[in-house]
Design brief:
Blueprint lengths: L1 H28 L6 H14 L2 E2 L7 E2 L13 E2 L3 H4 L4 E3 L2 H6 L3 E4 L3 H6 L1 E9 L4 E5 L4 E6 L7 E2 L4 E6 L1 H15 L5 H13 L4 H10 L5 E5 L4 E6 L6 E2 L4 E6 L3 E9 L11 E6 L7 E8 L9 E9 L10 E6 L2 H4 L5 E4 L4 E3 L2 E6 L7 E12 L4 E6 L6 E5 L1 H10 L16 H10 L4 H4 L3 H22 L3 H16 L8 H19 L3 H11 L3 H8 L6 E6 L2 H4 L2 E5 L18 E6 L1
Antiparallel strand pairs: 1-2, 1-3, 4-23, 5-25, 6-15, 6-19, 7-14, 8-10, 8-13, 9-12, 10-11, 12-14, 15-18, 16-17, 16-19, 17-18, 20-24, 21-22, 22-23, 23-24, 26-27, 26-28
Helix pairs in contact: 6-7, 13-14, 14-15, 15-16, 15-17
């Protein structure tokens, strides 16, 4: 009885609650604009406006939930901020930014004004201060007092002693003519002048006359001061009149010789002041003046030789040293705009150059911006004369990935200035299948990519040769890489890629000619200032390449290289520090 009463009360309670809920629902549905049909339509409208995206591939946008056509993950609703962005703006998730290693920098004018035009070069002998010490008469070298190159000599120093039958005969003529000098003064003077032409001094000639004896051995004295850079004879050698004995260089002044690229020439003028630093003395700056700009262009490297004369009284600058020169170029600053960017921030598409800016510093929102470029600097930076303002935040790493996302979201991009409708999952899948960031996005011909891949094969063998400390193989593989790069058809490539190819060819040629492992590795550092960027821009396909870095190489400035293996095998130190380094980026 008790249970029945309890159940009866509960049933009545449920009925009352149901009636109350019905009254409330009826009240709201009877309000204006909330008829049943309107509710249905609004619901459908919301579904139609909501876009669904993938957390790993934010370029995928679909009008309904489902699976990502690229990775198969469940789609999630796009953030509401996406709807409120400007027409050209788009966002990336934090996860996507981390995977693509997207990095930005705030641009300003100070860097350009401080650095100016940067050039890389070498110290070379001042050819105008070179001299050849020759023999002025025939003879046999009895004694040689300079036996090694690198010795410093001074003018008037005895270099060698020669026995000369020709000179013995000339002395006998002098003694005979001396007896007849009153009756035949012309003959006497002719004999004396003959000895003078062989560089005998008045004192030596006078000693022969006063002694009345013929000297069999005659010294050879230095006619200039300097450093012996080449010894061309040995004791016992027979030499002819005019034959070189030594090559002597005066190193109190030296040349700093730089290679300037075509697009840097407008920044250069003879007479400009240049500040020069060397790896040996990085804190010391030597002032020089641009004394010569070669009127001929090297068609292989697309460079022009620029030369400055430097004072070197203390002998700190040695021929062969690598140096960097900085020129405050007035013509560059007059072009309007002192903003510089790493070259990796700029995408070149023939006549147009674009960057991606981050207009909202606190949000991962980006938009494309067309820019006008000025000078290109030797340290891998470019000047922007129009399109950016100081203080704006610009993408400097992962630019291709950001551009690919812009294309797939239908926003303005490198290849599409107008933008188009957002891609559906089906379109995105097709685009991702046929379009990779960098190579196909830019539309590089397959024969160019195949040629670049052909050049990379011996490059990786070159890297392995350095790991094994093998100079000969390193030279051979550098030459093979150089030959492959020389045969690339550059007609379809933009100016930046052509510059990178020219710089790479130049360093590969230097590697092939290197005489020591140390010299080879120095040029390998310079090669890898250009090759990783070139690989990123071309994206040749094939296996994943890893960009690796040793922080201790290049005098603790750090140096890069490309590798097909994740495992670190350091080409700059070999067995000494085989595993020193880390992966900084990858090219898929």
């Amino acid at each position: 009885m008790c249970n029945f009463e309890t159940m009866k009360k509960s049933t009545i309670g449920y009925i009352a609650l149901g009636l109350l809920a019905g009254l409330i629902l009826g009240y709201f549905m009877s309000r204006p604009g909330h008829e049943a049909g309107a509710v249905h339509d609004h619901s459908m409208e919301m579904v139609g406006e909501t876009l669904w995206t993938c957390s790993m591939h934010p370029q995928v946008m679909q009008p309904e939930p489902g699976s990502c056509p690229i990775c198969g993950m469940d789609l999630i609703p796009a953030e509401g901020d996406e709807m409120a962005m400007g027409e050209a703006q788009f966002s990336l998730t934090e996860n996507a930014l981390a995977l693509a290693d997207v990095r930005t920098m705030t641009v300003g004018e100070s860097a350009f004004k401080a650095q100016g035009l940067l050039l890389s070069g070498k110290i070379r002998e001042n050819e105008r201060a070179n001299a050849v010490q020759a023999s002025y008469f025939d003879g046999r070298i009895e004694n040689l007092y300079i036996n090694t190159t690198g010795e410093t000599i001074r003018q008037g120093q005895r270099l060698a002693t020669l026995y000369s039958p020709q000179l013995v005969a000339a002395q006998q003529e002098l003694l005979s003519a001396a007896e007849l000098k009153k009756s035949q003064p012309a003959l006497y003077e002719a004999v004396r002048n003959k000895l003078k032409s062989w560089k005998l001094t008045e004192r030596q000639i006078g000693e022969i006359e006063s002694s009345g004896k013929v000297q069999e051995y005659f010294p050879v004295f230095a006619t200039v001061s300097g450093t012996v850079t080449e010894k061309m004879v040995r004791e016992g050698d027979y030499v002819k009149q005019g034959q070189p004995l030594f090559r002597i260089t005066n190193l109190s002044t030296v040349w700093a010789v730089f290679d300037a690229y075509e697009n840097q020439l407008r920044q250069l003028e003879e007479g400009q002041e240049i500040l020069i630093t060397s790896n040996a003395y990085p804190n010391d700056r030597v002032k020089g003046t641009v004394a010569f700009i070669d009127p001929m262009l090297d068609t292989d490297s697309r460079t022009v030789e620029v030369r400055a004369v430097l004072q070197n009284k203390q002998g700190l600058l040695k021929p062969g040293m690598f140096v960097k020169g900085s020129i405050a170029s007035p013509s560059a600053t007059q072009e309007g705009g002192g903003i510089t960017l790493p070259a990796s921030a700029v995408l070149w598409t023939g006549e147009r150059s674009v960057v991606y800016v981050k207009p909202l510093p606190s949000q991962p929102v980006f938009e494309m911006r067309e820019v006008v470029l000025g000078a290109t600097f030797g340290d891998g930076e470019v000047q922007v004369t129009d399109g950016l303002l100081p203080g704006e935040e610009v993408v400097i790493n992962g630019t291709f990935t950001v551009d690919a996302a812009a294309q797939l979201k239908g926003k303005k991009s490198m290849m599409n200035l107008q933008g188009k409708a957002t891609m559906t999952g089906h379109e995105a899948h097709g685009a991702m299948a046929g379009t990779g960031p960098g190579d196909q996005v830019a539309g590089w011909p397959e024969e160019v990519l195949a040629g670049f891949r052909k050049g990379l094969d011996p490059y990786f063998l070159l890297k392995d040769a350095l790991v094994a400390d093998d100079l000969k193989k390193g030279q051979q593989y550098a030459m093979r890489t150089l030959e492959a790069f020389r045969h690339l058809d550059e007609s379809s490539l933009d100016n930046r890629i052509r510059d990178l190819l020219a710089q790479s060819r130049k360093q590969l040629d230097a590697i092939a000619r290197a005489e020591t492992l140390e010299e080879l590795r120095t040029h390998f550092v310079a090669l890898n200032e250009h090759l990783p960027e070139l690989a990123k821009r071309l994206r040749p396909g094939g296996k994943t390449m890893y960009i690796q870095q040793c922080p201790m190489a290049d005098n603790n400035q750090g140096a890069y290289w490309l590798s097909l293996d994740r495992e670190i095998r350091n080409p700059y130190y070999g067995d000494a520090m085989l595993t020193c380094g880390s992966i900084t980026d990858s090219i898929n």
